Protein backbone atom coordinates (compact mmCIF):
# COMPACT_ATOMS: atom_id res chain seq x y z
CA UNK A 1 0.00 0.00 0.00
CA UNK A 2 2.83 2.39 0.89
CA UNK A 3 4.60 1.66 -2.37
CA UNK A 4 1.41 2.28 -4.32
CA UNK A 5 0.87 5.57 -2.46
CA UNK A 6 4.36 6.81 -3.29
CA UNK A 7 3.87 5.68 -6.89
CA UNK A 8 1.19 8.32 -7.36
CA UNK A 9 2.19 11.61 -8.97
CA UNK A 10 -0.26 13.38 -6.69
CA UNK A 11 1.35 11.84 -3.59
CA UNK A 12 4.87 12.68 -4.70
CA UNK A 13 3.87 16.23 -5.57
CA UNK A 14 2.19 16.67 -2.18
CA UNK A 15 5.19 15.25 -0.33
CA UNK A 16 7.64 17.36 -2.31
CA UNK A 17 5.65 20.57 -1.78
CA UNK A 18 5.29 19.86 1.94
CA UNK A 19 9.01 19.16 2.34
CA UNK A 20 9.96 22.31 0.44
CA UNK A 21 7.62 24.44 2.55
CA UNK A 22 8.87 22.75 5.73
CA UNK A 23 12.48 23.51 4.89
CA UNK A 24 11.55 27.09 3.98
CA UNK A 25 9.62 27.53 7.23
CA UNK A 26 12.45 26.13 9.31
CA UNK A 27 14.96 28.41 7.64
CA UNK A 28 12.67 31.43 7.96
CA UNK A 29 11.83 30.57 11.58
CA UNK A 30 15.49 30.20 12.51
CA UNK A 31 16.28 33.51 10.83
CA UNK A 32 13.42 35.25 12.65
CA UNK A 33 14.47 33.85 16.04
CA UNK A 34 18.10 34.78 15.52
CA UNK A 35 17.16 38.26 14.36
CA UNK A 36 14.75 38.73 17.26
CA UNK A 37 17.31 37.52 19.80
CA UNK A 38 20.00 39.72 18.27
CA UNK A 39 17.78 42.82 18.30
CA UNK A 40 16.61 42.33 21.87
CA UNK A 41 20.12 41.48 23.08
CA UNK A 42 21.40 44.60 21.33
CA UNK A 43 18.69 46.64 23.05
CA UNK A 44 19.73 45.21 26.43
CA UNK A 45 23.38 45.96 25.69
CA UNK A 46 22.46 49.55 24.84
CA UNK A 47 20.60 49.97 28.12
CA UNK A 48 23.42 48.36 30.12
CA UNK A 49 26.09 50.45 28.40
CA UNK A 50 24.12 53.65 29.04
CA UNK A 51 23.77 52.81 32.76
CA UNK A 52 27.43 51.78 33.13
CA UNK A 53 28.66 54.89 31.37
CA UNK A 54 26.45 57.13 33.51
CA UNK A 55 27.94 55.64 36.71
CA UNK A 56 31.44 55.84 35.21
CA UNK A 57 31.00 59.55 34.45
CA UNK A 58 29.86 60.24 38.03
CA UNK A 59 32.76 58.20 39.37
CA UNK A 60 35.24 60.08 37.17
CA UNK A 61 33.95 63.35 38.61
CA UNK A 62 35.08 62.21 42.07
CA UNK A 63 31.60 61.64 43.48
CA UNK A 64 31.60 59.38 46.60
CA UNK A 65 30.21 55.86 46.29
CA UNK A 66 27.18 56.59 48.43
CA UNK A 67 26.32 59.50 46.15
CA UNK A 68 26.38 57.55 42.88
CA UNK A 69 22.83 57.60 41.48
CA UNK A 70 23.29 54.37 39.55
CA UNK A 71 23.71 52.38 42.77
CA UNK A 72 20.25 53.41 43.98
CA UNK A 73 18.24 51.70 41.23
CA UNK A 74 16.37 48.71 42.62
CA UNK A 75 16.05 46.68 39.37
CA UNK A 76 19.50 47.19 37.87
CA UNK A 77 22.66 45.50 39.24
CA UNK A 78 25.74 47.76 39.35
CA UNK A 79 29.23 46.97 40.64
CA UNK A 80 32.51 48.90 40.80
CA UNK A 81 35.75 46.87 40.86
CA UNK A 82 39.28 48.25 41.24
CA UNK A 83 42.27 47.19 39.18
CA UNK A 84 43.14 44.46 41.72
CA UNK A 85 39.73 42.84 41.22
CA UNK A 86 38.32 44.00 44.58
CA UNK A 87 34.68 45.03 44.78
CA UNK A 88 34.51 48.57 46.15
CA UNK A 89 30.82 49.41 45.59
CA UNK A 90 27.57 47.69 44.49
CA UNK A 91 23.82 48.22 44.25
CA UNK A 92 22.05 48.23 47.58
CA UNK A 93 19.70 45.27 46.95
CA UNK A 94 22.18 43.11 45.02
CA UNK A 95 22.47 39.71 46.71
CA UNK A 96 24.27 37.50 44.17
CA UNK A 97 25.84 38.04 40.76
CA UNK A 98 27.73 36.12 38.03
CA UNK A 99 29.35 37.28 34.83
CA UNK A 100 31.12 40.37 36.22
CA UNK A 101 34.66 40.96 37.37
CA UNK A 102 33.92 40.33 41.06
CA UNK A 103 33.13 37.05 42.78
CA UNK A 104 31.02 38.70 45.49
CA UNK A 105 27.90 40.83 45.40
CA UNK A 106 28.70 43.16 48.33
CA UNK A 107 31.95 44.92 49.35
CA UNK A 108 33.67 43.14 52.20
CA UNK A 109 31.88 39.79 51.75
CA UNK A 110 34.02 36.98 53.22
CA UNK A 111 35.75 34.66 50.79
CA UNK A 112 35.79 37.22 47.98
CA UNK A 113 38.55 39.15 46.33
CA UNK A 114 37.29 42.27 48.15
CA UNK A 115 38.61 40.79 51.39
CA UNK A 116 41.57 42.19 53.32
CA UNK A 117 42.09 44.15 56.50
CA UNK A 118 39.86 47.06 57.43
CA UNK A 119 42.67 49.58 57.13
CA UNK A 120 43.30 48.64 53.53
CA UNK A 121 39.62 49.02 52.71
CA UNK A 122 39.43 52.34 54.45
CA UNK A 123 42.46 53.62 52.63
CA UNK A 124 41.14 52.46 49.26
CA UNK A 125 37.82 54.09 49.96
CA UNK A 126 39.47 57.33 50.81
CA UNK A 127 41.73 57.09 47.77
CA UNK A 128 38.91 56.41 45.44
CA UNK A 129 36.57 59.12 46.60
CA UNK A 130 38.88 61.70 48.12
CA UNK A 131 38.45 63.30 51.53
CA UNK A 132 34.94 64.07 52.82
CA UNK A 133 36.00 67.08 54.85
CA UNK A 134 35.01 70.55 53.64
CA UNK A 135 38.56 71.84 53.84
CA UNK A 136 40.05 69.05 51.75
CA UNK A 137 41.24 69.62 48.24
CA UNK A 138 38.82 68.53 45.46
CA UNK A 139 39.36 64.99 44.23
CA UNK A 140 41.16 64.66 40.90
CA UNK A 141 39.02 63.74 37.88
CA UNK A 142 39.38 60.39 36.12
CA UNK A 143 39.24 59.49 32.44
CA UNK A 144 36.36 57.30 31.14
CA UNK A 145 37.38 54.72 28.51
CA UNK A 146 35.45 54.97 25.23
CA UNK A 147 35.29 51.17 24.76
CA UNK A 148 32.58 49.02 26.27
CA UNK A 149 32.82 45.28 26.89
CA UNK A 150 29.82 42.98 27.29
CA UNK A 151 29.14 39.70 29.08
CA UNK A 152 26.14 37.63 30.09
CA UNK A 153 25.39 36.51 33.62
CA UNK A 154 22.80 36.36 36.38
CA UNK A 155 21.92 38.56 39.30
CA UNK A 156 19.75 38.10 42.41
CA UNK A 157 17.97 41.26 43.58
CA UNK A 158 15.54 41.12 46.54
CA UNK A 159 15.44 37.34 46.25
CA UNK A 160 14.62 37.31 42.51
CA UNK A 161 17.19 35.79 40.12
CA UNK A 162 17.19 36.72 36.46
CA UNK A 163 19.49 36.77 33.42
CA UNK A 164 21.28 40.01 32.62
CA UNK A 165 23.50 41.47 29.92
CA UNK A 166 26.39 43.30 31.61
CA UNK A 167 28.32 46.24 30.19
CA UNK A 168 31.83 47.06 31.52
CA UNK A 169 33.27 50.61 31.31
CA UNK A 170 36.72 51.50 32.71
CA UNK A 171 37.61 54.72 34.59
CA UNK A 172 41.30 55.52 35.09
CA UNK A 173 42.75 57.89 37.72
CA UNK A 174 46.35 59.05 37.57
CA UNK A 175 47.02 58.51 41.27
CA UNK A 176 44.66 55.69 42.21
CA UNK A 177 44.71 53.44 39.18
CA UNK A 178 41.89 51.92 37.14
CA UNK A 179 38.31 51.09 38.18
CA UNK A 180 35.73 49.09 36.19
CA UNK A 181 32.00 49.82 36.35
CA UNK A 182 29.63 46.90 35.63
CA UNK A 183 25.94 47.59 34.93
CA UNK A 184 23.38 45.04 33.86
CA UNK A 185 20.17 45.19 31.81
CA UNK A 186 17.60 42.37 32.16
CA UNK A 187 17.18 39.80 29.36
CA UNK A 188 13.67 38.87 30.44
CA UNK A 189 12.13 40.61 27.40
CA UNK A 190 14.47 38.76 25.04
CA UNK A 191 13.79 35.40 26.70
CA UNK A 192 10.03 36.02 26.73
CA UNK A 193 9.87 37.19 23.11
CA UNK A 194 12.00 34.32 21.83
CA UNK A 195 9.99 31.80 23.85
CA UNK A 196 6.69 33.21 22.61
CA UNK A 197 7.89 33.18 18.99
CA UNK A 198 9.18 29.62 19.35
CA UNK A 199 5.87 28.44 20.81
CA UNK A 200 3.95 30.15 18.03
CA UNK A 201 6.15 28.49 15.42
CA UNK A 202 5.83 25.06 17.03
CA UNK A 203 2.05 25.41 16.90
CA UNK A 204 1.70 27.28 13.62
CA UNK A 205 4.20 25.45 11.45
CA UNK A 206 2.51 22.02 11.65
CA UNK A 207 -0.86 23.62 10.95
CA UNK A 208 0.57 25.50 7.98
CA UNK A 209 2.22 22.33 6.66
CA UNK A 210 -1.09 20.50 6.97
CA UNK A 211 -2.81 23.27 5.02
CA UNK A 212 -0.09 23.17 2.33
CA UNK A 213 -0.30 19.39 2.04
CA UNK A 214 -4.10 19.45 1.80
CA UNK A 215 -4.12 22.27 -0.75
CA UNK A 216 -1.43 20.58 -2.85
CA UNK A 217 -3.33 17.29 -2.75
CA UNK A 218 -6.56 18.96 -3.91
CA UNK A 219 -4.88 21.09 -6.56
CA UNK A 220 -2.90 18.20 -8.04
CA UNK A 221 -6.00 16.02 -7.93
CA UNK A 222 -7.93 18.62 -9.89
CA UNK A 223 -5.01 19.21 -12.28
CA UNK A 224 -4.46 15.50 -12.91
CA UNK A 225 -8.11 14.51 -13.27
CA UNK A 226 -8.01 15.16 -17.06
CA UNK A 227 -4.92 12.92 -17.26
CA UNK A 228 -6.86 10.17 -15.53
CA UNK A 229 -9.66 10.68 -18.03
CA UNK A 230 -7.16 10.36 -20.89
CA UNK A 231 -5.76 7.18 -19.32
CA UNK A 232 -9.20 5.62 -18.93
CA UNK A 233 -10.12 6.42 -22.51
CA UNK A 234 -6.83 5.05 -23.83
CA UNK A 235 -7.41 1.85 -21.84
CA UNK A 236 -10.88 1.57 -23.35
CA UNK A 237 -9.49 2.16 -26.86
CA UNK A 238 -6.87 -0.53 -26.28
CA UNK A 239 -9.49 -2.98 -25.03
CA UNK A 240 -11.96 -2.29 -27.84
CA UNK A 241 -9.35 -1.78 -30.60
CA UNK A 242 -11.55 1.05 -31.86
CA UNK A 243 -9.10 3.60 -33.19
CA UNK A 244 -11.94 5.93 -34.19
CA UNK A 245 -12.43 6.95 -30.55
CA UNK A 246 -10.70 10.02 -29.16
CA UNK A 247 -9.65 11.11 -25.67
CA UNK A 248 -11.40 14.09 -24.03
CA UNK A 249 -9.66 17.45 -24.42
CA UNK A 250 -9.97 19.73 -21.35
CA UNK A 251 -10.76 23.39 -21.93
CA UNK A 252 -7.73 24.57 -19.93
CA UNK A 253 -5.31 25.33 -22.78
CA UNK A 254 -2.41 24.01 -20.70
CA UNK A 255 0.05 21.11 -20.96
CA UNK A 256 -2.67 18.54 -20.25
CA UNK A 257 -4.83 19.94 -23.03
CA UNK A 258 -1.87 19.85 -25.42
CA UNK A 259 -1.20 16.26 -24.32
CA UNK A 260 -4.79 15.33 -25.15
CA UNK A 261 -4.55 17.03 -28.55
CA UNK A 262 -1.28 15.26 -29.32
CA UNK A 263 -2.80 11.95 -28.20
CA UNK A 264 -5.75 12.47 -30.52
CA UNK A 265 -3.41 13.36 -33.37
CA UNK A 266 -1.46 10.17 -32.68
CA UNK A 267 -4.65 8.14 -32.63
CA UNK A 268 -5.72 9.73 -35.92
CA UNK A 269 -2.34 8.96 -37.50
CA UNK A 270 -2.49 5.41 -36.13
CA UNK A 271 -6.02 4.96 -37.44
CA UNK A 272 -4.97 6.25 -40.84
CA UNK A 273 -1.90 3.99 -40.84
CA UNK A 274 -3.94 0.93 -39.89
CA UNK A 275 -6.52 1.79 -42.54
CA UNK A 276 -3.81 2.18 -45.15
CA UNK A 277 -2.32 -1.12 -44.04
CA UNK A 278 -5.67 -2.86 -44.34
CA UNK A 279 -6.28 -1.31 -47.74
CA UNK A 280 -2.75 -2.22 -48.78
CA UNK A 281 -3.26 -5.87 -47.78
CA UNK A 282 -6.63 -5.96 -49.53
CA UNK A 283 -5.26 -4.38 -52.70
CA UNK A 284 -2.18 -6.60 -52.66
CA UNK A 285 -4.38 -9.66 -52.27
CA UNK A 286 -6.53 -8.49 -55.16
CA UNK A 287 -3.52 -7.79 -57.38
CA UNK A 288 -1.95 -11.14 -56.56
CA UNK A 289 -5.18 -13.06 -57.06
CA UNK A 290 -5.50 -12.33 -60.80
CA UNK A 291 -2.05 -13.47 -62.02
CA UNK A 292 -2.06 -16.44 -59.63
CA UNK A 293 -5.50 -17.54 -60.84
CA UNK A 294 -4.49 -17.07 -64.49
CA UNK A 295 -1.25 -18.98 -63.97
CA UNK A 296 -3.05 -21.82 -62.18
CA UNK A 297 -5.65 -22.06 -64.93
CA UNK A 298 -2.99 -22.25 -67.60
CA UNK A 299 -1.05 -24.90 -65.68
CA UNK A 300 -4.17 -26.99 -65.08
CA UNK A 301 -5.13 -26.77 -68.76
CA UNK A 302 -1.57 -27.65 -69.73
CA UNK A 303 -1.61 -30.62 -67.39
CA UNK A 304 -4.85 -31.92 -68.93
CA UNK A 305 -4.14 -30.87 -72.51
CA UNK A 306 -0.43 -30.26 -73.05
CA UNK A 307 -1.06 -29.09 -76.59
CA UNK A 308 -3.13 -26.16 -75.24
CA UNK A 309 -0.48 -24.89 -72.75
CA UNK A 310 0.20 -21.13 -73.28
CA UNK A 311 3.82 -20.84 -72.23
CA UNK A 312 4.10 -17.18 -73.18
CA UNK A 313 1.09 -16.29 -71.02
CA UNK A 314 2.44 -18.33 -68.12
CA UNK A 315 5.80 -16.58 -68.36
CA UNK A 316 4.05 -13.17 -68.51
CA UNK A 317 1.99 -13.94 -65.42
CA UNK A 318 5.09 -15.22 -63.60
CA UNK A 319 7.03 -12.05 -64.46
CA UNK A 320 4.08 -9.96 -63.30
CA UNK A 321 4.02 -11.87 -60.01
CA UNK A 322 7.76 -11.44 -59.61
CA UNK A 323 7.55 -7.69 -60.25
CA UNK A 324 4.65 -7.26 -57.85
CA UNK A 325 6.44 -9.27 -55.15
CA UNK A 326 9.55 -7.14 -55.62
CA UNK A 327 7.47 -3.95 -55.36
CA UNK A 328 5.76 -5.16 -52.19
CA UNK A 329 9.09 -6.12 -50.64
CA UNK A 330 10.59 -2.72 -51.45
CA UNK A 331 7.58 -0.93 -49.96
CA UNK A 332 7.88 -3.05 -46.83
CA UNK A 333 11.54 -2.09 -46.48
CA UNK A 334 10.74 1.58 -47.03
CA UNK A 335 7.94 1.47 -44.45
CA UNK A 336 10.35 -0.16 -42.00
CA UNK A 337 12.61 2.90 -42.31
CA UNK A 338 15.46 1.41 -44.33
CA UNK A 339 18.21 4.00 -44.69
CA UNK A 340 19.15 4.82 -48.28
CA UNK A 341 22.91 4.80 -47.66
CA UNK A 342 25.43 7.49 -48.63
CA UNK A 343 27.14 6.16 -51.77
CA UNK A 344 28.05 8.83 -54.34
CA UNK A 345 27.07 8.36 -57.97
CA UNK A 346 26.41 10.39 -61.12
CA UNK A 347 22.68 10.93 -61.61
CA UNK A 348 23.13 11.81 -65.29
CA UNK A 349 25.00 8.58 -66.05
CA UNK A 350 22.37 6.60 -64.15
CA UNK A 351 19.59 8.20 -66.23
CA UNK A 352 21.37 7.39 -69.50
CA UNK A 353 21.90 3.80 -68.31
CA UNK A 354 18.20 3.21 -67.58
CA UNK A 355 17.02 4.96 -70.75
CA UNK A 356 19.35 2.94 -72.97
CA UNK A 357 17.56 0.62 -75.38
CA UNK A 358 14.13 2.20 -74.87
CA UNK A 359 12.44 3.20 -78.13
CA UNK A 360 11.38 6.85 -78.45
CA UNK A 361 13.34 8.02 -75.38
CA UNK A 362 15.65 11.03 -75.70
CA UNK A 363 18.13 11.80 -72.92
CA UNK A 364 19.90 15.09 -72.20
CA UNK A 365 21.89 14.61 -69.01
CA UNK A 366 24.58 16.67 -67.28
CA UNK A 367 27.00 15.21 -64.77
CA UNK A 368 25.37 15.81 -61.37
CA UNK A 369 26.65 13.86 -58.31
CA UNK A 370 24.18 12.74 -55.65
CA UNK A 371 24.42 10.51 -52.58
CA UNK A 372 22.18 7.65 -51.54
CA UNK A 373 21.12 4.23 -52.77
CA UNK A 374 21.99 3.87 -56.45
CA UNK A 375 19.66 0.88 -56.80
CA UNK A 376 16.67 2.68 -55.27
CA UNK A 377 17.17 5.83 -57.35
CA UNK A 378 17.58 3.62 -60.41
CA UNK A 379 14.25 1.99 -59.51
CA UNK A 380 12.65 5.46 -59.46
CA UNK A 381 13.99 6.23 -62.94
CA UNK A 382 12.74 2.85 -64.24
CA UNK A 383 9.28 3.44 -62.80
CA UNK A 384 9.10 6.94 -64.28
CA UNK A 385 10.23 5.72 -67.70
CA UNK A 386 7.78 2.79 -67.65
CA UNK A 387 4.95 5.13 -66.69
CA UNK A 388 5.90 7.61 -69.43
CA UNK A 389 6.13 4.82 -72.05
CA UNK A 390 2.64 3.56 -71.17
CA UNK A 391 1.05 6.98 -71.64
CA UNK A 392 3.19 8.55 -74.38
CA UNK A 393 1.97 8.70 -77.96
CA UNK A 394 5.41 8.63 -79.53
CA UNK A 395 8.18 10.33 -77.57
CA UNK A 396 9.61 10.51 -74.06
CA UNK A 397 12.29 13.03 -73.05
CA UNK A 398 14.61 12.78 -70.05
CA UNK A 399 16.64 15.73 -68.75
CA UNK A 400 19.14 15.82 -65.89
CA UNK A 401 20.48 19.16 -64.67
CA UNK A 402 21.86 20.92 -61.60
CA UNK A 403 19.66 23.61 -60.12
CA UNK A 404 21.29 25.30 -57.11
CA UNK A 405 21.60 22.75 -54.33
CA UNK A 406 19.38 20.28 -56.17
CA UNK A 407 19.85 17.65 -58.83
CA UNK A 408 16.74 17.62 -61.05
CA UNK A 409 15.52 14.79 -63.29
CA UNK A 410 12.64 15.70 -65.65
CA UNK A 411 10.74 12.92 -67.44
CA UNK A 412 8.14 14.17 -69.95
CA UNK A 413 5.87 12.45 -72.46
CA UNK A 414 3.55 13.64 -75.25
CA UNK A 415 0.48 11.84 -74.00
CA UNK A 416 -2.73 13.24 -72.56
CA UNK A 417 -1.13 14.21 -69.22
CA UNK A 418 -2.55 13.87 -65.71
CA UNK A 419 -5.66 15.84 -64.72
CA UNK A 420 -4.88 18.38 -62.03
CA UNK A 421 -7.36 16.77 -59.63
CA UNK A 422 -5.48 13.47 -59.83
CA UNK A 423 -1.88 14.77 -59.58
CA UNK A 424 -1.54 13.80 -55.93
CA UNK A 425 -3.79 10.77 -55.99
CA UNK A 426 -1.62 8.93 -58.52
CA UNK A 427 1.16 8.71 -55.89
CA UNK A 428 -1.07 6.64 -53.59
CA UNK A 429 -0.56 2.89 -53.53
CA UNK A 430 -2.59 0.73 -55.91
CA UNK A 431 -4.12 3.81 -57.51
CA UNK A 432 -4.54 3.62 -61.27
CA UNK A 433 -6.54 5.97 -63.43
CA UNK A 434 -9.31 4.45 -65.53
CA UNK A 435 -7.29 4.72 -68.72
CA UNK A 436 -4.39 2.81 -67.15
CA UNK A 437 -6.74 0.09 -65.90
CA UNK A 438 -8.05 -0.48 -69.40
CA UNK A 439 -4.61 -1.20 -70.79
CA UNK A 440 -3.35 -4.75 -70.72
CA UNK A 441 0.17 -3.73 -69.80
CA UNK A 442 -0.87 -1.46 -66.96
CA UNK A 443 0.99 -1.91 -63.70
CA UNK A 444 -0.36 -2.63 -60.26
CA UNK A 445 -0.38 1.02 -59.23
CA UNK A 446 2.75 0.81 -57.06
CA UNK A 447 5.43 2.33 -59.30
CA UNK A 448 4.73 6.01 -58.59
CA UNK A 449 4.11 5.34 -54.89
CA UNK A 450 7.50 3.62 -54.65
CA UNK A 451 9.15 6.46 -56.59
CA UNK A 452 7.82 9.14 -54.22
CA UNK A 453 8.72 7.15 -51.08
CA UNK A 454 12.30 6.70 -52.34
CA UNK A 455 12.55 10.40 -53.21
CA UNK A 456 11.33 11.47 -49.77
CA UNK A 457 13.71 9.10 -47.97
CA UNK A 458 16.59 10.60 -49.97
CA UNK A 459 15.62 14.08 -48.80
CA UNK A 460 14.02 15.01 -52.12
CA UNK A 461 10.64 15.41 -53.81
CA UNK A 462 8.69 13.98 -56.74
CA UNK A 463 5.97 16.06 -58.38
CA UNK A 464 3.95 15.93 -61.58
CA UNK A 465 2.91 18.78 -63.83
CA UNK A 466 2.19 19.53 -67.47
CA UNK A 467 4.89 18.97 -70.09
CA UNK A 468 5.54 21.46 -72.93
CA UNK A 469 4.21 18.85 -75.37
CA UNK A 470 0.98 18.58 -73.39
CA UNK A 471 1.68 15.31 -71.60
CA UNK A 472 2.83 14.62 -68.05
CA UNK A 473 6.05 16.08 -66.65
CA UNK A 474 7.52 14.29 -63.61
CA UNK A 475 10.29 16.14 -61.75
CA UNK A 476 12.52 14.28 -59.31
CA UNK A 477 14.62 16.55 -57.06
CA UNK A 478 17.45 15.17 -54.95
CA UNK A 479 20.06 17.03 -52.87
CA UNK A 480 23.37 17.37 -54.68
CA UNK A 481 26.33 15.61 -53.08
CA UNK A 482 28.85 18.03 -51.56
Description:
- With 482 residues, this protein is of the alpha+beta class.
- The protein folds into three domains: 1-232, no CATH class; 255-335, Signal transduction histidine kinase, dimerisation/phosphotransfer (DHp) domain (Helix Hairpins, Orthogonal Bundle), CATH 1.10.287.130; 343-479, Heat Shock Protein 90 (2-Layer Sandwich).
- It contains ten helices and 14 strands.
- It has helices at 2-6, 9-60, 118-129, 188-240, 255-304, 311-335, 347-355, 374-391, 434-437, 447-457; strands spanning 78-82, 87-90, 94-97, 143-144, 149-157, 160-173, 177-186, 343-346, 361-365, 369-372, 396-403, 406-413, 461-466, 472-479.
- The strands form three sheets. Strands 1, 2, 3, 4, 5, 6 and 7 form a seven-stranded antiparallel β-sheet that branches.
- A hairpin with a 2-residue loop joins strand 11 and strand 12 (406-413).
- Helix 6 (311-335) packs parallel to helix 10 (447-457) and helix 7 (347-355) packs across helix 8 (374-391).
- The chain is rod-shaped and about 150 Å long.
- The chain starts with a helix and ends with a strand.
Outline of the structure:
By secondary structure, the protein is of the alpha+beta class. The chain has ten helices and 14 strands.
Quaternary assembly: single chain
Strand content: 15-25%
Mean pLDDT: 83
Portion of residues in helices?
A: 40-55%
Estimate the global geometry from the Cα principal axes: rod-shaped
Radius of gyration from CA coordinates: 53 Å
Would you count the extended β strands for me? 14
N-to-C order of helices and strands: HHEEEHEEEEHHHEHEEHEEHHEE
End-to-end distance, in Å?
Answer: 62 Å
H/I helix tally: 10
